[in-house]
Amino acid sequence: MRTSGAFETAENFGIHDHLCCAYDDTTEFYARAAEFCRGGLDQGLRVCVVTNGDGASLHDAFADDPWLSGSLDDPAIHWVSAEQMYPAGWCADPMNQVRRYIAATEAALADGFSGLRVIAEATAAGRIPEQIEPLARYEHRVDRYMARHPLSALCGLRRAEVPPESVEQIASLHPVASPGAAQFHFYTNEEGVLAISGELDGEAAVAFALALRRAETAAPSGELVVDARGLTFLDHRNLSTLAALAARKEVTVLVRTGNPAVGRLIELLNVRGISVECKA
């Protein structure tokens, strides 16, 4: 299963996991990056380190790591600049960026690796308000691919340079994020189904509405399944947002939940377009 929730350490994550590291101090990001890199090499993954002007510092941090110090020249680790991986104008077509990572994953598999692991510092994109929309769309789309293919990633956002609302919007599109970065997580589970975990209260309402809009969900069968078994709280405002999606898409939203309180709220309000399936 894909991991969801908050994380303190980037060790022990699998080949489909997707993390957002919202950090205050660069040493914090370097430590999480080193942990994530070690885990990737242990699992036979190619590790692609995308640097944003901090390549030397990150390289030095890895050199100080007892486990990684002897692996810096290992062909399993690729050091790539942000300019190479995210060329000018990339945000005009977020799906094209996803295709870059699909190709890189397939290349890693062809070279005998068990998949691809990416460590990317995304602060440069996150600090520009006009790029939040395409960045969010990209994050959701690449997460869909990760759910069913051996691609995992750790994305870094420096809090001092990225507006708090932008951190929340981007972090919430990762199944795993730093403590306090996101109240909820909107992602694709291992079955390829939309999933929500965490809490959806009034403070999360704006970010949740944006996440739903940016996901551009499709339900050709007329039913959109949402796995909400990881959701611990859902209020009427966010439920109304789901109902609005159902009306806009002319579909039924089937909410799977193992939380009786969530199921009772949906049944009590009898919101049109939403049905409930209790599933542990």
From TrEMBL:
Pfam families membership: MEDS, STAS_2
CDD domains on file: STAS_anti-anti-sigma_factors
Domain STAS: 193-280
Cited Gene3D superfamilies: STAS domain
Name under which the protein is recorded: STAS domain-containing protein
Species this protein is from: Amycolatopsis rhizosphaerae
